[in-house]
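Feature request, filed as a ticket because there's no other form

It would be nice if the structure record came with a short human-readable summary line next to the tokens. Right now we just get the raw output. Example of a typical job, pasted below so the devs can see what we mean:
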Amino acid sequence: MREADTKTSIGLALPRALAARTPFYYGWIVLGCLCCAGFARQGPAVATLSIFIDPLTADFGWSRTAVSGAVSLGGLLAALVSPLIGPLLDRRGSRLVLCVAVLMNGVALLLLSLTPSLLVFYLLFCIARMNWAGPFDLGIYGALNNWFLARRTAAASIANLAQMLGLVAMPLIAQFAISHDGWRAGWVALGVVTLVVGFLPVWLFLVRRPEDLGLEPDRAAPVIQQPGEAAAAPEPRFSRRAAIRTPAFWLLMLYTVMVYPVQAGVSLHQAPHLVQRGLDPTTAAFIVSGFSFLSVVVTIACGFLPRRWPIRWPLALAGAMLVVGTWLMPEVDTAATGFLAAGLFGLGIGAVLTLLPVAWADYFGRQNYGAIRGLALSTQVLAQATGPLLSGALYDLTGTYEISLRVFTVLSLLSIVAAVAARQPKGLG
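Raw output as currently delivered:
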């Protein structure tokens, strides 16, 4: 026990010294670390893999269902490990989880450049995708929700902005490398960026929660309540068992099941869909990045949402934008209509990715966030796994993405109903 305490104390020495000397809240340094991890996370994102589909299928003759299956299998692995990582995250914090995830992804992406067969591709990409869907998500939002309460939405907006910038940059980095030296160079470029950007800040400066440095969430000193000022609402402290008993838990789960097949299914196949609709591959890559850019715009906007607004209404609006975006995609015939459909879709996805982790923390608190979110994340990644597989299978069966896009429109409509019904649970757990 003494040895563990000594290691913990050594690990906190640099953050403690920095927190004592900086004139601002140390949580902003933590947020900077999370932004680096979030940017580095996007190497195995489906939007990035989308750039590799055509060259991989051309070189190896793989079907699009086969390529999509790697995304789905990686999601299944994440669904298995996330409930195990969640309680570990609550005990040990995000530093360990994120450092291991960054290292594993960087190495896996580098080794993908040596891919000789579909089996090796599955082995390496599934490891990277498992980390993307599970450890990265839990680590980033676990730390963020520990450090921020009053400014949680703004902090989540900044963290998601970094992830969206990564989602803009990674496909372009991959496309640039592929156009100059083939798809193998694309994987090398992604692996190097992952390791360079993601590891050192997290290893040096990330701290589990503000209490470890003698601080409080959102501030470097306790706030004294002024006479006549209303007391702040106490923070929820739901256990995982108590959370499962609330309707809000299951409605947020239902919302997750509706939106994440849409997110993953469209993101992976949007580039080949645009090429099939008559656009050249470079234009398709810019539209993919344009969708990510609009996600960035709405991510910034989410940071300005008043905390007093029920979060279920912005989640419902996000579902509505997904409805319109997926409905327009089969009608794309020019670059302009491609940017319009992808832009609306990007607005909806950006809002979902920013606000849904905040909703889990707002509804159930930060004390057992890892355990609760880890369970919910299993559902999320399983839902993500179905989207690409559905799109790929229907394409191989029909030769078009139209049917899958119509299915995604229906799922997006149902997500609006789930969001509106998901009211804040009563009590504090």
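Something like this underneath would help us a lot:
The chain has 17 helices and no strands.
Residues 1-8, 220-231 have pLDDT under 50 and may be disordered.
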